[in-house]
Amino acid sequence: MGIAFPFSRPLYVMAKPAGAQCNLHCAYCYYKEKGRLYAGSRGWMMDERLLEKFVKEYIEAQTTPCVLFTWHGGEPLLQPRRFYERALMLQRHYAGGRQIDNCIQTNGTLLSDDWCRFFKDNGFLVGISIDGDLPLHDAHRRNATGGGTFQQVMRGIEMLQRHGVEWNGMAVVNHVNVQHPLDFYQFFRRIGCHYLQFAPIVERTATRSDGLTWAPGMQAQGQLSPLSVSAEQWGAFLCAVFDEWVKHDVGEYFVQLFDATLANWVGEAPGVCTLSAECGHVGVLEHNGDLYSCDHFVYPEYLLGNLHRHTITEMMHSARQQQFARYKRLALPRQCKECRYLFACHGECPKNRFLNDRYGEFGLNYLCQGYHRFFEHAAPYMDRMARLLGEGKPPSWIMEEPGRQP
Asked: CA nearest 291: which of 313, 276, 270?
């Protein structure tokens, strides 16, 4: 029986080239406040010296022939295009025969024809943050003066499509759009978004001495933000979207959470940390070189070190990060361990695990009831798609099977 070493799995670092800076003021943003950690900083942009060190060490830290660079924010397009041109030059220089890919997550409002040509010419995958049609999106994704941003985002998407840039959608599910699951999903289908990720808002407010307002997960303090979804809403939302997808869109439109669930159903890696047995293999690099355990844990207590003083390999494979990774599995409460869907959920994201379970043990996921409802609802379909895969057939055949609605 082989032993799984931490070095044997892929390692990712999400880079924040403009830190927490953003041209929008979304009501639910969990990251913009992180700028308070660097209030005394002389600048908010990653410089070329740090960029080169990051590119070189990130490539060297990989144990696979393919290397994925992810540029995130804040808003990464606040960096000028020459920053990314320099990054591409450094990637080619240090590649050492590896395949290099790039993806960038943007709110889409700063896209231009020049940006789109650059992304197309260099094979970037572009993630667009958009929460649904105009009323659903503009409910919370607003600019600095309080105006809606939907039209700007759609203009950016149209430019990406015109230039043939590969893109996907990233939607935040909040207390508004969670109430309109079919309108939400049909909008993405209507605009030709074939790859869709969505994440529920579960945020808590708390007063901290460092000025940060969101409380990190795995702790009981803090009040739930009014923008958050309830577990009941989340479960109903997932079931409604899933029903539409499984009847019409399997194999043509790809919803990350459904694909990850099916992967867990057949015993494969889900490809998303929230549904994995352990996490901790996706760090976050701030503009000044600080490396944190996770994008949702950018707090001083989860700082692993700084790239100017430590290597990526040292920090991401440190005992501290390994402890962070194992917590997800080792701290499961009794109710989770007894759940028949533990294999599909693994307790979900640690940041959401702040309730007591029915036995009084701390660490139950706030969304547990919603996920359980979804897994119960989707189980017959997942069983059938798993059987199709086992027979060497595509899961999309479920749409052609008689009696496909158990």
From this structure: 313
114 burial type by CB count under 10 A (0-12 exposed, 13-18 middle, 19+ buried): exposed
> Which residues, 6+ apart, have CB-to-CB distance to 150 below 8 Å?
130, 133, 134, 137, 138, 141
Active-site annotation holder among 290, 295, 357, 383 = 295
Tens digit of pLDDT for each residue in 274-322? 999 999 999 999 999 999 999 999 999 999 999 999 999 999 999 999 9
HSE-up of residue 252 (Cα within 13 Å, Cβ side): 13
Residues 6+ apart with CB under 8 A from 93: none
Distances (CA, A) of 208 to 37, 205, 212, 286: 12, 9, 6, 21
State the amino acid at position 90 in one-letter form: L
Are the C-beta atoms of 153 and 26 separated by less than 8 Å? Answer: no
Q: What is the pLDDT of residues 74-88, one digit of tens each?
A: 999 999 999 999 999
- For residues 362 and 374, give the distance between their C-alpha atoms in angstroms, rounded to a whole number: 23
When pLDDT is cut at 50, 70 and 90, the band that residue 204 belongs to is: confident
Q: Helix axis angle, 181-190 relative to 231-248, nearest 10°?
A: 40
Active site residue 295: yes
CA separation for the pair 353, 328 (Å, rounded): 9
Tokens of 335: 């109710």
| CA–CA separation, 316 and 131 (whole Å) | 32
Q: Which residue has the tokens 């639910």?
A: 28
Residues 6+ apart with CB under 8 A from 35: 19, 20, 21, 44
d(CA 373, CA 195): 24
Distance CA(20)–CA(211), nearest Å, equals: 15
For 307, counting Cβ atoms within 10 Å of its Cβ (0-12 exposed, 13-18 middle, 19+ buried), the class is buried
Contact 365, 235 (CB under 8 A): no
